[in-house]
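FAQ: What does a multi-protein file look like?

Like this. Sequence, then tokens, then the next protein.
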Amino acid sequence: MVRPPWTARFRSIVFEGPIGVGKSSLAMKFATRFGYTPLLEAPDENPFLSRFYRDSARYALPTQLFFLFQRMDQLREVSQRDLFEEHLVSDFMIEKDPLFAALTLSEEELGLYQKIYESLRPQAPIPDLVVVLQASAEQLSDRIRQRGIDMEQGMSEDYLSRLSEAYTQYFHRYDEAPLLIVNTAALNPIDKEEDFDALVAQISSLKGRRSYFNLMP
């Protein structure tokens, strides 16, 4: 595949954002269109996740630790390959794990989690570009309902609102990689080719460390 010239600047791209914002679907579409290797979360492999949605207080810690080790294993495998021979697109970055942990774990559990996280974090590579997808809690709730995954249907708008705010605060301070912050309220790059092309145009023309993309009038 012959990729556009701008892909040489962004050999590794991460699409990030809260649950339901569409990062996994967008990462896969991006991988297919431009020949990137997808590195995607695998929530179906987490044996604690469905129980977490039923009883979050009891299963928050094992759910969080499973995801942490799973993501680190994925990133470790990638770091052992020759990244100069491939382009990589992902729907997660390891730095998001503490955002979820802070919302779901007790004080004692969070202390234990932080010790484990800090011992693993230096192994995570820094991407060439992070694309942060944003949406309101109401929009996230609607999208979660529409995609129809049973165990997600009880997720409250309050939790989604707190999660979105945690993402906003984290990326307000983030400066490790170039950042494109995208408001998806009026953007549907999965189903609308013109929206996908508009997003790609934003990525291809990026300059500096931080940019914003918003189709809202």
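And here is the next protein:
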Amino acid sequence: MNARLSYDEMKELLEARLKPKRFCHSLGVAETAAKLARRFGVDEETARVAGLLHDCAREFPNEAMIAEADERRLVYGPIERAMPLLLHAALGAARAAELYGVDDDAIAQAICRHTVGAARMTRLDKIIWFADMIEPSRSYPEVERLRTLARQASLDEMLLAGLTDSIKFVAEKGHLIHPDTIEARNELLLQGVTVPV
């Protein structure tokens, strides 16, 4: 693994490897994650780096994801095999170490969990997952409601709202719903979390 790059070096390398729209999205997630980290008492620099690199494996085309995952001996199941794009999360965690020198388990886990979520998510995991949904270039019907929650609700309330919206969206598209997403949502409901009206 390379020595850890500075944040500016990470940005420069990422910009060279991603399409402009994806790079812009990554910058938006980084800054949104830093703001959420400040609000919820998480290290801002850690959140900024995780946000910046969360999609770093999107440099690979979808059809290459399986081979890239196999090359790194990443474990995945039938849902990822059917929807290889989901592998960009685990691949991103690997690429953060390989290319950017980020040897930080918390960042790797947050990158790995940013797409479908998981049970027992850390505050950093939740921040990266949610920042990905609401960063400034995102535009979809529910985004303003979620941005309002980011200013007013608890982290778990925000996450529950986001997971619920995500499951509805994926179901309406007729796609597979990852069991980790359902488990993450069920865990919050079992803890008595509700979404503010």
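Q: Is there any per-entry metadata?
A: Some entries carry free-text notes. For the entry above: The mean pLDDT is 97.
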